[in-house]
Amino acid sequence: MNLTVAEENYVKAIYKLQEGDQAVTTNALAYELDTKPASVTDMAKKLKEKKLIDYEKYQGITLTPEGRKTALQIVRRHRLWECFLVDKLSFSWEEVHELAEELEHVRSEKLINRLSDFLGNPVIDPHGDPIPDAHGRMAKPRPQTPLDQANAKRLVVTAVSDQSTALLAFLNAKGIKLGTQLEIVAHYEFDNSIEIKMKHLPSLTISEQVAKNIMVRPL
Amino acid sequence: MNLTVAEENYVKAIYKLQEGDQAVTTNALAYELDTKPASVTDMAKKLKEKKLIDYEKYQGITLTPEGRKTALQIVRRHRLWECFLVDKLSFSWEEVHELAEELEHVRSEKLINRLSDFLGNPVIDPHGDPIPDAHGRMAKPRPQTPLDQANAKRLVVTAVSDQSTALLAFLNAKGIKLGTQLEIVAHYEFDNSIEIKMKHLPSLTISEQVAKNIMVRPL
DNA sequence: AATTAAATTTAGACAAAGCTAAATAATAAA
DNA sequence: TTTATTATTTAGCTTTGTCTAAATTTAATT
Ligand SMILES: [Mn+2]
Ligand SMILES: [Mn+2]
Ligand SMILES: [Mn+2]
Ligand SMILES: [Mn+2]
User: Fold this and answer.
1) 3-state SS, residue B145
2) Ligand at shortest distance from the CA of A101
3) Fewer CB within a 10 Å sphere, N or C end of chain A?
4) What is the pTM of this model?
5) Cα(first)–Cα(last) distance of chain A, in Å?
6) GO molecular function of the protein, one example (chains A, B) (predicted)?
7) Rounded to whole angstroms, how far apart are CA atoms B187 and A91?
8) Nearest nucleotide, CA B43 to C1'
9) Which class in CATH covers the domain with range B145-218?
10) For residue A86, what are the contacts with CB-CB under 8 A and spacing of at least 6?
11) Residue B20: its pLDDT value, please?
12) Domain residue extents for chain B
């Protein structure tokens, strides 16, 4: 099926919001895509027509199996381009999302498979997110939790769930990246901030907001 | 100025057709872009509004200096992506044009300059066409002529002027590529076909059509 | 110079993707 | 269970880029 760029962006956004299998709401999708609910309703009708989503008035949106397959292809392209930009062109992780948002729409199986080979068939992208293979399968991520809910003391950073430039730039400034090892020094109940310690660095206190978006697993 | 993909394709096509400085006709542009003359007229009005072209009814189209600058940026992106695809992803020269046609529309100075560095700042693309630098300057190509007009006997292939898959595939089949050295054995007046000889290979006769599109210079 | 042919433009329509404002449905509060 | 609030949809309009058919201009031929 031949999708427009807009349709691809919708399908990917629905995939992202559809954690598990609960329906995605019109408003949530509008917010995610920085558009208006009325526009989402319009597009929902088109995507239903193309059998990429299940949609009934007022009932929210879910991807069909076909839609999910499509979404995974787009996610694959997005994440592989991110890897390319970071690994080969030396971009930093907060710069690549925007560019990948455009590169992901160049549709060519051959291109993307060769790109994957060229990169050594990576399985996670620069933000720690898994990359679907050519068949849409991804390594199920090793168990990870947001830093604010971690119970172990010694942890390693495995991903960032919010990928805004603002958060990533903050983490850069503090020297936190994928693979960074850290120790929880204290929880402060007042604002749920967390004090952490990385090797060779003075300890540092981060807000709950930040902690929620750093994914970790026990070391 | 922020151009749409369609506008970029028009500007690039006008640049391509505007050999020297003669105006590009509506019909020629429509044919080049595989669209209809009426659509070209519509777009001409928009591009004039954006000061990218000079255009008066019935008088044809020429790029303004601003338009030429824009065109050179697009050409730069196109040709650098072609280099990437051939040099890094092992595509062959007849496969890359289509893909570059899409990749060229990802607008990022930083991306394209890093890509250029990554590729070693190449100055010609896989078809022998010069690549504009970041300032829009290109090495003026060494003098070259179409094979059908060459007077020297021993020649080297420097570029292909028609880049259709059909021609490139034909050249592949015959073992002709950039840098190939050949000798003219005979001209046949009947159909202007040309017999050529490459080292270690039996001689071979090519049509005028083909010869017109192989650019060569004396060895 | 008049006529024919070719090139170009205009008029009117359509599909895609978006918007605002108004209407309707679903949910939450009183 | 009414009432108020929030979520969603509908209606109508806009922009971009395309098309066909008709009109007009320019160029080429008698
Ligand atoms: Mn995108
Ligand atoms: Mn990512
Ligand atoms: Mn293009
Ligand atoms: Mn080329």
Assistant:
1) strand
2) 1
3) N
4) 0.94
5) 45
6) DNA binding
7) 54
8) D17
9) mainly beta
10) A92, A93, A96, A126
11) 77
12) 5-63, 145-218
Chain A partners of B115 at a C-beta cutoff of 8 Å? 89
Output helix, strand, coil percentages for chain A, rounded to the nearest 5.
40, 20, 40
Give the number of other Cβ atoms within 10 Å of residue A201's Cβ: 12
Helix (H) or strand (E) holding B196: strand B193-197
CATH class of B5-63: mainly alpha
The segments of chain A whose pLDDT lies below 70 read none
Q: Strand A61-63 relative to strand A53-55: parallel, antiparallel, unpaired?
A: antiparallel
pLDDT tens track for A141-172: 789 999 999 999 899 999 999 989 999 999 99
What's the CA B4/C1' C24 distance, rounded, in angstroms? 38
According to the model, what pLDDT value does residue A52 have? 98
Alpha-carbon gap: A120 to the closest alpha carbon of chain B (Å): 12
Check for a shared fold between A5-63 and A145-218. Answer: no
* Separation CA A102–CA A89 (nearest Å): 16
| Separation of alpha carbons B5 and B183, rounded Å | 43
Q: Which of residues 42-81 of A touch strand C (CB under 7 A)?
A: 42-43, 46, 58
CA distance A181 to B25: 64
For residue B141, is pLDDT > 90? no
pLDDT given for residue A74 in this prediction: 98
**Distance, Å, A27 CA → D6 C1':** 11
Are the C-beta atoms of residues A108 and A180 closer than 8 Å to each other?
no
The residue whose two tokens read 């990246």 is A177
